[in-house]
Amino acid sequence: MLPPRMLGLLMLLALLSDVNGMCPTDFEGPILDPPEIIGTYGQSVYVNCSSNSDLIDGIAWKIGNNSLDLQEEIYFLLETVSLTDWSMTAECIIQLNEIHKCSKDLKITVYQNPEVSVSVQEVNVSAEGTLYKVRCDAMNVAPVQNLTVTWHRNNQIITTASFNDTTKTPVNVSSDVLILISRRENVVQIECKAQLDLGLHGPQFPAVSKMNLSALYAPEFILKHNENISVLEGDGVTLNCDAEGNPPPVLHWTHDGVNLLENTSSLEIAYVNTSTTYTCTASNHLGSTTKHVSVHVIRGTTPELPSTTERDCPITVSPAEIVVRFGDPLLITCNTSDARAVKIGWTDRLGVTEMNEPPSITWKVEQMKMWNFNPTCFVNWSDSQCGKRLDVTIYQTPDMVSVSALHLGPVVEGLQHNLTCDIYNVAPVHKLRVTWYRGKEVVLLETFEHWFSVTPVNVSSTLKVTPNRNDNGNVFRCEADLDLRPIVQPKSIHSAASASYTAVVHYAPEFKEVRDNEEVILGKNVTLGCSAEGYPPPEIQWKYISAVNLKETTVGRQKIIMITEATSTNAGVYICVATNEVGRLTRSVTVVVKDTNSTFIWLLIIGCICCLGIFIIVILLCKNSKKHGQYSFVPGNGSDGTDIPMTPKSAGEKA
Predict the structure, then answer these.
(1) What's the total number of domains in the chain?
(2) From CA 192, how far away is CA 179, in angstroms rounded?
(3) Which range of residues forms the domain containing residue 281?
(4) pLDDT tens sequence across 66-96
(5) What letter would DSSP give residue 62?
(6) DSSP string covering 38-100, please?
(7) Is pLDDT of 363 > 80?
(8) CATH code of 201's domain
(9) From CA 650, how far away is CA 654, in angstroms rounded?
(10) DSSP state of 430
(11) Coiled-coil intervals in this record (predicted)?
């Protein structure tokens, strides 16, 4: 009768097909751990091939075109795969007998994260707004079929793009998007995010590029109509020509065809003695516009300067202080309680605007389109004049608030990183407050009191952060608001919260286990586990002397060594290595194999030695007693046959 092993082999051969490499239907075939490798180019990884059947002759690896030697009479084989070829292949081969074998290919993905840049390709200006064609270039990326490009507009997803190219080597690809921006949007942030999704290995850290765009339009004057200004003969005057446009217009002053000043909105005339007209032209590459400012000289008597102080002037302005959004309507009423007043009126930087009969006059503005607006209400008596200047705060909330990291690479634990909060088109900036939050905790409050600009500006606030691993996943945000107290009660108004920034902190591995020794009884099973925390999740590797009764497996992110029926050859030091892009950490476990039979023998030997020692001590004590004259006598017969009593001699008797 054939032995069981031979019968098993014959049954296995009966199920085999004639094609080498095909595994029998009832044979599980090679077991790969991990079943798939995903790594960056140049990385080295370990992979184990094993079999659950003991009816095999051996295992071998084929790495690329290199076939390695067959390892006989083993049930698992660990091999290093170096990802130095974009089309790297690996195959585990199980030799079933001298003729037949079966194999399994290891799935390998070699990847490289892209570099990203955003650029404007085309611009088309129309009445609806500005249409941009924006391109995102993702460079040196592999495999491109795993790449997704996501477009964001002010932190909102607008479209995504994927690629069907099956090339495994790094390539350059592009994605285009059309962005229409209206004038009312002012500033729009466009973001391109390119990210590889590698299945079980998860999405990679995205490459991001951002760009701020705004609507383009030809210049427009804030005060569109021509202006007439009255000036006393011999006095000076400042002419203003405020214009807006995108790109910002270039301003040009002329007088009677003579060029005066360029790129300035103000023209100062120190001495006026003749009525004349000045021309201001605002232009950019989209067009130009012109307005005229006529200066009229006033000769003769004019109202005198106020003869009383503002505090003593009998004028009441309602409201006393004004806060108005740029572009909103404005209504102000001025009253006087002095019955002697003959005229009441308003004046601004352009001169007398309107006069009326006392006791009141109202100034109505349909749209506040001037940033420098501080009118004065005045009353005239027959021989004097006084006035009260009105404080007007003209504000504009930010068009956009965004948070970004200045550092392009990953946020690493223990290194200082700067987060920037960009606030666009806010006025007045000296009233601006920026509050930084980590979650719900306030970490920084910044004001801009040292700035002074009544027109809108762009400003930034920087938060310096030295993160630790507990900050991973924390949300940072900045909030910009205009503090208009005490004019507006009870608190500031018109806050604008930014989009949040979620910190992804990279930190070095840290082991969960602290056990350094493991004892196992000879012939018993033992399991060694190793896992570590870190970001990116660390790769775990064991280093040890291989043995036929040792198997390494992966459970989640834990690497486990299983030793079955431990022998003395399994004793020794096992080293676990955890590695990620931030750092590398090792720990060792000493395995001690104990034999229970040898323990019993040693106990028996020690017991015998103890008994022998006790016996020797007793003998020595007996000998020591005889040396001191202590005897025991047994009566015997005398030579004559009579009993002779043996009694000790008393101390007083003589022999």
Answers:
(1) 6
(2) 13
(3) 218-298
(4) 888 888 878 788 888 888 899 889 999 988 8
(5) E
(6) EEETT-EEEEEEE-S-S---EEEEEETTEEPPPEET-SEEEEEEE--STT--EEEEEE-SSS-
(7) yes
(8) 2.60.40.10
(9) 8
(10) G
(11) none
